[in-house]
Design brief:
globular; binds pyridoxal-5'-phosphate; single chain; two-stranded antiparallel sheet; 12 helices; Aspartate Aminotransferase, domain 2; 370 residues; 2 domains; Aspartate Aminotransferase, domain 1
Length: 370
């Protein structure tokens, strides 16, 4: 039995006709930019999150970039981000000309180390970007509280965490702006690239809508320098078909996580450290990331057995070649460096079967026990 890391066909097959109908609707309308599908998606996302504004964008990366632009962050400014995340979190900071100030992550959740983040605030700090990594909420309250007193903006990178809650309130609704991705491997995936940002302040939402269309309103009158960060109507139509299923898919991912926990407990594998679930920080398992000794050899063993896994992420930001000029050295962030060496994401997608999960656990057991 092979077990892919992600099986998009399993999600597509039961929804195929509805998805094709939605795409056909857009094709028949020939309205590809803006229009009723985009407006409908934005309305439904905002209702779903119980939050005033959701602005559809071209990707999660552009969501982070647009947030930084809306907050007018640029040269001379510092933005605090974890060193352990997907590249976009820090890459966007560099793209606006600001300096990413990196901090380590928590060993048990992989999320931003809050005391370090707060200690890194200087008079030049304009924003902190907590990332809800792998679908688990970062510890937001102390960040939001301290940031407010220091006039530092909180930009939530919720790209992996749509529908995840912190103290019962969705992530992406705690900071000045929340950034989400609809990349196909995220919990709610488009048929290509797409994303959105959330905001509660109507002026911020307005600015974000201007930024996504070259700061233009009306046509050919430009209030600010933006970019083309628009979401396609086709993507919006696809996402509107999928959005009503998101809660069930997240519940299925959580069920699968519980099943892994029971199976690993039964296998009594002390080598395997399972992902922690911190109190009040819901985990919707965009990824189920274990920590293991001999990670690369285990990964090769699972590959040979037809089991898909992935390393998120093999190189923290501070050791990336493109950030060498930031001046960080190996050893600067030992928790992230250890995670880069021993973390491994297992298949966790909603349609994964119990038999597939038991295949995964047995294959890991056979690696350590022969
Ligand atoms: C996926 C992701 C992004 C970027 O989203 P794209 O839609 O792929 O551009 C940003 N931050 C994190 C943490 C992500 O996982």
């Amino acid at each position: 039995m092979t077990v892919p890391l992600l099986d998009l066909h399993a999600q597509y097959t039961p929804l195929r006709q509805a998805l094709l109908d939605a795409v056909t609707r857009v094709c028949d309308s020939q309205r590809f930019i803006g229009g009723p599908e985009v407006e409908g998606l934005e309305r439904e996302l905002s209702a779903r999150l119980g939050y005033p504004h959701a602005v559809g964008l071209s990707s999660g990366t552009d969501a982070v970039l647009a947030a930084l632009m809306a907050l007018e962050i640029g040269p001379g400014d510092e933005v605090i981000t974890p060193t352990y995340s997907f590249f976009a979190t820090a890459g966007c900071v560099v793209r606006v000309g600001a300096r990413p100030v990196l901090v380590d992550c928590e060993p048990d959740t992989f999320n931003i180390d809050v005391p370090q983040a707060l200690a890194a605030i200087t008079p030049r700090t304009k924003a902190i970007i907590p990332v809800h990594l792998f679908g688990q909420a970062a510890e937001l309250k102390p960040i939001v509280d301290v940031a407010a007193t220091q006039h530092v903006a909180v930009i939530e990178d919720a790209a992996q965490a749509i529908g995840c809650e912190y103290h019962g309130k969705p992530v992406g609704t705690w900071g000045a702006v929340g950034c989400f991705s609809f990349f196909p491997s995220k919990n709610l995936g488009a048929f290509g690239d797409a994303g959105f940002v959330t905001a509660s302040d109507p002026a911020m939402a307005k600015k974000l809508t201007l930024i996504r269309t070259h700061g233009m309103e009306p046509k050919y009158y430009h209030h600010l320098v933006g970019a083309n960060f628009r979401i396609d109507a086709v993507q919006a139509a696809v996402l509107r078909v999928k959005l009503p299923h998101l809660a069930d898919w997240s519940a299925a991912r959580r069920r699968n996580a519980q099943r892994y926990r029971a199976m690993f407990a039964g296998a009594s594998l002390a080598e395997v450290t399972l992902p922690a679930e911190a109190p009040h920080r819901t985990h919707i398992y965009n990824q189920f990331v274990i920590r293991v000794p001999e990670r690369d050899r285990l990964k090769a063993h699972l590959d040979r057995a037809g089991i898909g896994t992935e390393v998120y992420y093999p190189v923290p930001f501070h050791l990336q070649e493109c950030f060498a000029n930031l001046g960080y050295k190996r050893g600067a962030f030992p928790v992230a460096e250890a995670a880069a060496t021993d973390s491994l994401a297992l298949p966790i997608y909603p349609e994964l079967t119990e038999a597939q999960q038991s295949t995964v656990v047995n294959a890991i057991r056979s690696f350590y026990r022969g």
